[in-house]
Specification:
With 82 residues, the chain is an alpha+beta fold. Helix content is 35%, strand content 24%. It has two domains: 38 residues, no CATH class; 31 residues, no CATH class. The mean pLDDT is 87. One of its GO terms (biological process) is mRNA catabolic process. GO terms for molecular function: mRNA 5'-UTR binding.
């Protein structure tokens, strides 16, 4: 891991097309601005972890229950209707 020290209004350039700028430093946190092409995905790590965990849980649940039961549950039903 590369560790750099930056102050407010200082930037880091990644590759040819991504710039990370420190916008503000406060006692409660650091405000960061990221300038990148629209085709680059930028996500907060805790969101990626939460989605990954939810997906893992869904896979586990689906292996424990039948697809029909899951569909009925999602539709708010307990028995199939014809």
């Amino acid at each position: 891991m590369l560790v750099l020290t930056r102050r407010a209004n200082e930037s880091i350039v990644i590759g040819d097309d991504i710039t990370v700028t420190i916008l503000a430093v406060t006692p409660s946190g650091v405000r960061v601005g990221i300038d990148a092409p629209r085709d680059k995905r930028i996500h907060r790590a805790e969101i990626v972890l939460a989605v990954t965990d939810a997906n893992q849980e869904a896979v586990q649940t689906s292996s424990d229950e039948s697809a029909e039961a899951l569909l009925l549950s999602a539709l708010g039903r307990t028995t199939p209707t014809n």
